[in-house]
Design a protein that fits this description.
With about 90 residues, the chain is α+β, with helices and mostly antiparallel strands. It has four helices and three strands, in the order βααββαα. Strand 2 and strand 3 form a beta hairpin. The relative contact order is 0.12.
Length: about 90
């Protein structure tokens, strides 16, 4: 897939929707961010890219996004009792 296309406004997306979809489907453009009030609202992407990105995941849920990227110390939970005691004002 090519690099994402420059962001376009919602009005431009509505006006040139057929051309934008044609460019994305034929690989002339990557994901096209559509802005609404200056913030990204949606991306126009090819079906094959969408299916690959969402394979095995429920729509809208991104489980395991950081899987394998971070390591935690073995004893990370060792101080939980002490933290709980401090939150309770020093009482166990």
């Amino acid at each position: 897939m090519t690099e994402p296309a420059p962001a376009i406004g919602l009005f431009e997306a509505k006006t040139h929707f057929s051309r934008i979809v044609d460019d994305v489907v034929n690989g002339r453009s990557g994901a096209v961010p559509v802005m609404r009030r200056g913030k990204p609202a949606v991306y126009i992407v090819a079906d094959a890219f969408y299916r690959q990105a969402t394979a095995g995941a429920s729509p809208g849920i991104r489980y395991g996004l950081a899987k394998g990227k971070y390591r935690l110390a073995r004893g990370i939970d060792a101080g939980n009792a002490e933290v709980l005691r401090l939150f309770r004002g020093g009482e166990a």
